[in-house]
Structures are given as C-alpha cells and as structure tokens.
Amino acid sequence: MSAPLRLMAVHAHPDDESSKGAATMARYVAEGVEVLVCTLTGGERGSVLNPKMDRPEVLANLTEVRRQEMESAREILGVSQRFMGFVDSGLPENEEEPLPEGCFAVQPLDVASAPLVAAVREFRPHVILTYDDDGGYPHPDHIMTNRVSVEAFEAAGDPDRYPGTGEPWQPLKLYYQMGFGKERFEALHEAMTSRGLGSPYADWISRWEDRPQKWPVTTKVPCSDYFDVRDRALLAHATQIDPDGFWFVCPTELQAEVWPTEDYHLARSLVDTELPEDDLFTGIHAEDVAPVRN
Question: Which domain holds residue 140?
C-alpha cells in the first residue's frame, strides 16, 4: 500500500495499553503500521499495586510518576501516545459510593468523546481497539472508555457532528479486547498443572460465572514473538505491576506454546471480511488507505 495502515488503541489508564493488546501493537509496529495509543485519564486515583513502589515520594508524585512510566512503555512498544486530559474516576468500593466530581466517568458523553473524535480525525486510523461494553471489568473508566470509543467510531466520519474537531474521517473496523476469557486461562492452568508448575488460576476459574461469553472471539492475532516486548512494557509501569506477581507466574515460553495469540471481537466493520480472522486489517485494501493530511 502507498500509505501506511494506522491502528488506534483507546485505553482508560496508563498501563492498560501494556496489559491489553500490547503484543499485537508491537507486532504491527514491526510490520510498519502506525500505532497511536489514546489514554483517556492520567491514572491519578490508581493505587500503587507493587509493594516495592509503595513509598512516600512515589505517592506524593503519583500523577507524574505514572506519566513517566507511560513514556517508558510507549518507547518499548514503539507506539505514539497521547493523554486525552480527563481525571481518573477511581474504583468505588460499592455501587452506592458516588464518583468524584469532575472525573472522567461522570462527564457528558459529548464532552468525554470530543477529544477522541479530534484524535481520530487527525490520526485517521483504519482500525480502533477498545473494551467491550462491560469495560473488560466493571471499572467506571473502562465502561466509559467503551462508550466514548463507540461514539468516536460512529461520529468521526459525520461532518455535522463535533464541529471544530477537524475534517471528518471514518474508521473501518472497531474491535473489543477479549484477552481475559475463561478458555485462555483454563488452557494456561492445564498446561501449568500438567508440567507440575502449580497454577495461580484455579480459584479464579472456579469463581467464573457459568454463562455464555457475551462477545465471542472473532479474531485471533498471532503475536507470541512479541510477548517479551509486552512484558517489558508491563514492567515499565512499576507502580502498577509487581514483577513477582500474577502477570509473570506463567512462563512466557509456555504462554507462547499454549496461547500464542491476542484475541478480539469484531464489533463494527464497514468492510467485507470473513470470520474468523487472524489479522485486524483483513478486508482493508489499498483504496481504503489514505495518507494523513498535513
């Protein structure tokens, strides 16, 4: 193609880009695709999840520390990245607890979506990645990220919507991240126990609700060659990722053998494609690819 393919990944907080679809992004970067991560909040209300980083000087400057971590992860993945400017909503302890005033999750949809619509119109992605309508897990910022991403996908190509945010651009495909499915963890659990390694997944699987998966996997992207890049990007988020914790219990080489893909649900497509897919850009042809306007 005369112009590069472009992929946009929309995430709620710094570190989400490294725990959800990072190997996919690294693979596409290596193949010459332009990749932009849009981070909707600064992660200001996130907890320090790595005991080694639970220090007063870190807590006093958490916003800046998380920005520095994001920059390190961005460099490792080889992507571009922008903060959309909203404030982290935090994770309430119960449904009755009100969200903080002015946070991302309480914004009107048009206010929350406008910066992302502007980014879509400027970057002109062919494919957008985001979370499903449950947010992947029910964090208010993740749920709002889905709503904003769907709104941007549907509105960015309409010249009558969001005036003043750039010339219209219509993305062609929208995917939901499906990286935390039960089938994957069952496969990793079986592989670890059969090799006598011990598995951290048994209790989690036992508590999994026995119901059909709401959004079936339609697209499996082979990317195991980039699992090490993913892991290095994860470790860059040192306040959030414990190097001795859950993320690294299953050896990388075993993950590559048992589940060498990152998985997605094709939520919207304006091009013809045939399911299942193994490439996010299936169905996108040269005539669909236009250069970014200066």
Answer: 6-179+215-287
